[in-house]
């Protein structure tokens, strides 16, 4: 794995590197030049070689920048839709930055010591119909990673569809996008945010009543160690997905779900910023199952729920509308 970084002194825990040295941007291979520029790298990049986490030879590149001027998820998606060609799986980390967001543009606040990661998988061996199940991939990778770095002491649960909770506190979130060509998935793009050292100041809402971080849960770890574990889990889960399809992830996703068997309210998210919790929710019921396309099967509701914002019923009672805080991943 090739590592590009503008802060090599902060890489400890992400990957052991060798043969590393500072170099000029114009001396990098063309693909690396493009990656460095679009992802917000500054100055002369440090370039090193690492065995990489996960299955041997799985990761192609890791790019770590001290500050991203805008959402790495957005710029990478735009670049992949254009002329950017990646030689293989690539992980990008911003230690801080601006413009991070999640579903429907809801903001995600960067905070010191937390993980803000964007991952691209070019040309995965998947067909277009499997795209709807892909949010399972990063969610399970975070569950796996936190379990590893805590020695099994913590295992986050997944609140449909992309929030990661520990003891009722949101500690992470994921975002997924795909690019499709004909009947094949041309690229997978993942955004992953994990509150490692800092719990951002987020006003409570019924959708995210409490925000936490691993440090507050008594976990002594770093963003780099969590990034290493997330990349390891992604490599393993991608291998399972390529060989066995989404069914390889579905049982694990259901096992980690916090909503199965719970009474929930699902609000429409078709109009961002206009969801009002004080109003009668469009759908309310007990979650009986999660289908392969991640739709919710609600008791008493004939049609599976394919989209919306979910709150536990107990958090909807006597709730007044209010502004939403930064609750989504990069």
Helix content: 10-25%
Number of helices: 6
Quick check: average pLDDT?
A: 89
Structural class: alpha+beta
Roughly how many Å is the radius of gyration? Answer: 19 Å
| N/C terminus separation | 23 Å
Q: What is the number of beta strands?
A: 14
Beta-strand percent range: 15-25%
What sequence of helices (H) and strands (E) makes up the elements?
A: EEHEEHEEHEEEEHHEEEEH
Give your account of this protein's structure.
The chain is an alpha+beta fold. It contains 6 helices and 14 strands. The chain has a 10-stranded mixed β-sheet with strand order 2-3-1-4-5-6-10-9-8-7, sandwiched between helices. Strands 13-12-11-14 form a 4-stranded antiparallel β-sheet. Helix 3 crosses helix 4 (223-244) and helix 3 (136-149) packs across helix 5. 45% of the residues are buried.
Characteristic terms for this protein:
330 residues, alpha+beta, 10-stranded mixed β-sheet, 4-stranded antiparallel β-sheet, 21% helix, 25% strand, globular, disordered C terminus
Q: Can you lay out the helices and strands and say which pair or pack?
A:
Layout: E1 2-5, E2 18-22, H1 30-38, E3 46-49, E4 61-65, H2 72-81, E5 90-94, E6 115-122, H3 136-149, E7 157-159, E8 163-166, E9 169-181, E10 184-194, H4 223-244, H5 247-256, E11 263-267, E12 283-290, E13 296-298, E14 309-312, H6 313-316
Parallel strand pairs: 1-4, 4-5
Antiparallel strand pairs: 1-3, 2-3, 5-6, 6-10, 7-8, 8-9, 9-10, 11-12, 11-14, 12-13
